[in-house]
Batch of 2 targets.
Target 1
Amino acid sequence: MKTQRIFPGAVLISFGLYFFLEQNKIELFEGFFSWPTLLGIIGFAFLLQAYWGKDYEAILPGVILFGYGLHFHIVNRLNLWPNDIGIFILIISLGFILKARRTKGGLFHGILLLVVSILLLFYDSIFKWFGVLESGLDKALTFWPFILMAVGMYVIVLKKK
């Protein structure tokens, strides 16, 4: 049975601890007292609600908020961490995939977004590997956003059955 008291309790406890640390100038790491930490706290509360409260619909917002908060903390500290739109789509795809493990819905969305994120993150490497850029197909690849839009329109409008 779902319990709805975990999320607000976790937010209040976490925010209380955050502000206690801030008042006493106890910084756990450089940049701790910033908005990405607050995103992470809210995301963590959603994840507690999802797993302890068996409210699995909260997995997706939990992963997104916690993941974005973590990303904004890591991006300027690790040189190998990408600061690209692909990483945001990857975090969303992970949320869909984790949610699908519990709810049996959304796996297709997660895998589709995972493929898009991999293509965005490794676009240059993938097409160099295939030798596409040297073959003259690079001009044709400028239309890939329109291909994505066409597939989306197909899914929304034509595939009603």
Note: The chain is about 70% helix and 0% strand.
Target 2
Amino acid sequence: MGREIGSTEYTRSQRTRYRRELRRNLDLFETFLDTAEFVDEGTVGVELEMNLADRDSMAPALIADTLLEDLDDEQYVHEIGRFNLEANLPVTHPEGTGLRELETALGAAVDRADAAAQARGARVVPVGHLPTISEDLFADEAWRAPGARYEALESSVMEARGEEITLRIEGEGRGVDTTFDSIAPESACTSMQLHLQVPPEQFAAAWNAAQAIAGPQVALAANSPFLLGRRLWHETRIPTFVQALDTRPPEYAAQGVRPRVWFGERWITSMFDPFEENVRLFPALIPESREMAEEPLLTEGHSPRLHELMLHNGTVWRWNRPIYDPGTDVPHLRLENRLLPAGPTAADMAANAAFFYGIVRSLVHERRPLWSRMSFEQADESFQQCARWGLEARVRWPKVGRVRVADLLQEHLIPQAMQGLRELGADAQVIARYQEILTERARTGRNGARWQIDTVTSLELRGGTREQALAEMTRLYRAAVDSGEPVHAWQVPARQRG
């Protein structure tokens, strides 16, 4: 959904033609996969979504339009919320010092946007959910960024659902149980999305590996424990995103109709599988044809652009999404990992990337693949439990049994990921840096979510209200980001004033 579209409403005949072209795209893609040559460089990339908060109150600052004009840089683009900003980082490679350079680029992207924000009386906060978001933010359409694609997305989701969006998430007290007449809660979800270029013959193994370790991955990086003033899941982005873009009325959900934000339901055998599932299981949300978009059929290198298939793929939000890019000369395939929250610091985010790229590399080349020893349902259960409880979750794991995910990470998965980085050619000093950050985070149990929870608890015990505690915690969070220290080293305020 990164490209602008030309319309927000579509006729029945346009939808019928789009469905026909979508199936033609799918047939062409299947043939193309069997015969084409793809770029195979193993490059990696990152998209980082950030929040904008008022410098004094730490409430959401609806200034993205102005800020993008100030920045005047194609690296920064709109996200769906006016209090969101996205930075697209340069493509790199995990070999050598590539991941350390990624850390530098992440820090620079946040710092430059923050400098522009400060000139407007705001701060950039890289976090999964901005803790100070309240229901009042979504009372009218001011929350939404300009652009036909956002309007069309909201209109299509609400029309398909036929009723208000229900946000129902368990947590403290009665959790959150409220309704919205828009997809506004989706804008509360800000992530760091990792891209991994993969050759066609390895894509199924890479996707299966990413699905298998999704639970431990999200537990290690959880950073979204508060939404609408309530403490909910350690990574509340996961249920929020699922529910905010749910096109199913409750009756369809009860019948087993799949949600648009989807973990999946089986291991795959080729890259074609998830594209075929998308076409077979999900109706089009934005049926804009190639002709309407004025897209050519082929690139200069004669790779098919597959406009309809790629647009449709962008409206099925798999946590690990397949990407086909026709390029300008030679096409390539990517795995887009979408389950990580933004933040806390550049060091933390680079360490999260190091874990993902390393563990996928290692798992893809195992003699007996992890996913052959784990049911898909087990991987899904692990993902849900780890999103709910973070590093405190317990999961079932092959050869290990039921185990604390923090122990599983410390004793097995982090060392395995570091071995994967060695196989990718990363420098020893780079590996040592991220191994220390990840291991200490698992050992102390302090990821971003844990620090936020502990800090709010301390501030409330000092006598602050929840609203005051969330605002103060967000200020302390932003100051800790400025320090550059990884989150496991952040201090929690004393529960009583000294």
Note: The chain has 17 helices and 15 strands.
